[in-house]
Amino acid sequence: MTDLLTFGSVCSGKSRTGRPAIDLLGQRFGRLLVVERVENDKRVDRPTWRCACDCGSEVTLHGGALRSGRNKSCGCFRRDRAGHLYRKHGLSKTPAYTMFYDARKRAQRFGVPFDITPDDILIPKHCPVLGIELNTGPREAAASLDRVRPEAGYTKGNIRVVSFRANRLKSDATPAELRLVLDYMEGRR
Q: Where among 37, 60, 86 does a domain terminate?
């Protein structure tokens, strides 16, 4: 009988029902591969196994949980499946979608028009205003969504991506106000 185990002091080779313990070593259950029998601290009559998951992690489970099909992974399968359930389009981690999502929230908060999609947001390599290379994160060179005419809201043809610094300098100033500031800075006022 090669499929039976006898473990002496660890286990008499019998399960709690009196049946012989089943050797699961080397068997695969879903994403789990049984690699070792381990001592069960709580119940000596319940065979416990260390399993390697395909994702690289390890988990310790009772033989019954493996054989019944209750456990087929370390939990990575559930995380993978749940991740797909909550993603509608696969764009949620892209910079364009983040800008789209944030702009939509601002439009709702401030009551400005909004009719753009993530595809309308084109991120250039360099800021068209300052010429600096755009990057991600909360820095001066971070890509920022600009409304050409703020009162027109986030609408097609009224948005462009510039650096955070350029957008902050522009803020909601009119061209006439920016000329006044420039004249002041150059000492003409």
A: 86
